[in-house]
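Field log, afternoon session.

UNIT: design team B
ACTIVITY: writing a sequence onto a fixed backbone
BACKBONE:
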């Protein structure tokens, strides 16, 4: 029966949805798993090797009780796999501006569609995407920073897509040597 269903899907051109949750699904899971609505204090959401969605999301959250302290949660399939604490980021490598989650219209699955469309326009194929959602430096608006990689794991493009309306803010394409 399963083989018949797969054959029908292939013949009709039906593509199954990703087996992994998009970023908003991981954020909903985080709120369900951790008290205090941590999704309201998110400063960064990361996902690697998405085809179209990554297996895991790393979500960085500010601690409201301890300035300079961040909690990172790794979420996979509605479960928390890990929780880490970062204190006093003296190197200044962590983002500090909270993402306004309420205004986000574009989820990671939508960001994938934008990346796919832009890649086709530029005639650049890719195999995986690294996703990063954070507030734009200087503006505070939420932006998807997408790094597109080919099957050899080489960077073939980078996109910045505004998460509030899907506008492509920046794009760079790289053509790896053949």
């Amino acid at each position: 029966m399963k083989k018949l269903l797969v054959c029908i899907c292939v013949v009709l051109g039906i593509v199954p949805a990703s087996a992994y949750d998009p970023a908003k699904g991981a954020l909903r899971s985080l709120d369900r798993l951790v008290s205090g609505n941590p999704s309201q204090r998110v400063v960064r959401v990361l996902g690697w090797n998405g085809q179209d969605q990554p297996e895991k999301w790393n979500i960085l959250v500010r601690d409201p009780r301890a300035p300079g302290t961040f909690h990172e949660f790794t979420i996979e399939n509605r479960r928390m796999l890990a929780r880490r604490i970062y204190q006093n980021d003296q190197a200044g490598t962590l983002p500090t501006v909270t993402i306004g989650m309420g205004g986000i219209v574009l989820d990671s699955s939508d960001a994938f569609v934008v990346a796919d469309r832009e890649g086709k326009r530029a005639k650049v194929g890719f195999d995986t995407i690294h996703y990063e959602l954070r507030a734009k430096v200087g503006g505070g608006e939420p932006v998807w920073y997408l790094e597109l990689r080919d099957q050899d794991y080489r960077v073939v493009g980078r996109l910045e897509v505004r998460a509030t309306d899907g506008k492509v803010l920046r794009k760079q394409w790289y053509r790896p040597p053949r």
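LOG NOTE: The helical segments are 2-12, 23-33, 108-122.
NEXT ACTIVITY: expression trials, pending approval
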